Amino acid sequence: MGSAFLRKSALSRSALSKSALTAVAGTAVAALLLTGCSAEGTEASERPSDETSQEEGGQDGEGGDEEEQDEVLMDFGDETDQVRELQARLLQLEHFAAQPTGYYGDVTLGAVSEYQRAAGMDVSGTVYRSTWDALLGETEDPTQEELYPPQQLMGYGDNSDQVRELQARLGQLDHFTENPTGYYGDVTTSAVLAYQQARGIEATGTVFQETWDALLGETEAPTEEEMFPPLEIPEVEPAQELDERCLTGRVLCISKTSNTLAWVIDGEVELTVDVRFGAEETPTREGEFEVYWKSRNHHSTLYDSPMPYAMFFDGGQAVHYSEDFAANGYNGASHGCVNVRDEAAISGLFDDVVEGDKVVVYW
Asked: What DSSP state is assigned to residue 45?
C-alpha cells in the first residue's frame, strides 16, 4: 500500500509538474502576445478595449455629422442651376460683377472668395454648407430676370458684320450718318442711345434683343452697297516727294504736310492712306523710329478707348484705326497717335508690317 501510495504521489507530482509547465508556458505566450507588435505595427498592449473603441466610434460619428454639416455644395467646374442662383445672390451683394451663367469658373471662384473674406469665413473659394447658409441669410430669392437676364447681342468694342448691319439699319432711320465700319465704338453707342430714346426703350447704348427686334421691325435688310459703301481711294504720293529717309528699306512714311501715310518698300509706294495727328497739347512726335510692338485688338487703358490694328513706334504713340476719324474726319484729333480711317487698308497693312520696320514722321 505504501508503495502504491508513493507511486500515486509521484504520478500526481508529475501531473502537477506538467500542469505547472503548461500554465507557465501559457503565461509566457500570453506575455509574448501582450508585448509583441501586431501586423499593423501597433503594440497589442496599446490596442483599445471594446469600450474605448465604442466611445471613439461615437466620437467619429459626431465628427461625421460636422463634416456633413459643412459638406461641399458647389465648387470650381460645376455647371448647375444652383450655381446660377449662387451667382445671382452674390450679385445682390455686389460680389459678382457678371451675368449669371450657371458655370462655376474663375469669376465665380473669386466672387465666393471675396464674399467669404467679407463675412469673416475661411477663404477657400468653395461653397460649403456654412457659406451657402450664410449667403441665404443675407440675400433674397433671385427673380427670374436676375437668374436669366437679357443677353447682350452687340456692345462697345465689338467688331463684326452684325455691327455693320446695325449701323446700316440705323442709317436708314438717320440715326447713323456715317459709312458702316463694323466697329462698335462711341459713334455707334451714341446712335443706339438715340434710337432707344426715340422708341421708349431703356437707353443703354447696348443692343439687347428688345432693341434689335424693334430695329428689325422698322427697317429693311441692308443692301450690299449700304453695308459696304465704296471708299474714296486717295491718290498715291509720288516716291520722289517722300522724305529721303523713306527711300530705303521697309518704311511707314508719315507726312504731316499732306496728312498721309505711305507704305514704302525700297522706294516703291505700296499703299497710301489718309491720317490725322495729335492735338496741339498732345502732338505726334516727329523723327525716325521703328515698330516695336503690334496689337491687333488694343484698348487704351489711359484713355479707355479702342486702338485696333495698333503699331507702336514711340512710347504710347502708335499708328492705328480710328472710328472717330472715319466718322468725323479732321474735326477731331488724336492724343498723339497717327489715326487711320480706312479700316480695310490698315487691316491689310497691319498684316504686312513686322516689328522692326522703320517709321518716319516728318513735315
From this structure: G
Query: Which residues, in sequence order, are CB contacts of 254 under 8 Å at separation 6+?
Result: 260, 261, 262, 275, 319, 338, 359, 360, 361, 362
What is the DSSP pairing of strand 338-340 with strand 317-321?
parallel
Per residue in 287-317, pLDDT tens?
Answer: 999 999 999 988 876 766 789 999 999 988 9
**Radius of gyration for the chain, computed over Cα atoms and rounded to the nearest angstrom:** 41
What pLDDT shows up at residue 103? Answer: 94
Three-state SS for 149?
coil
Check the CA dihedral 320-166-223-175 and report its sign: negative
Cα 77 vs. chain centroid, distance in angstroms? Answer: 15
User: pLDDT tens for residues 167-187?
Assistant: 999 999 999 988 888 888 788
Please state, in angstroms and rounded to a whole number, the distance separating the CA atoms of residues 149 and 100.
8
Q: Which three cell numbers stand for residue 269?
A: 509706294
pTM above 0.70, yes or no: no
Find the length of the chain: 363
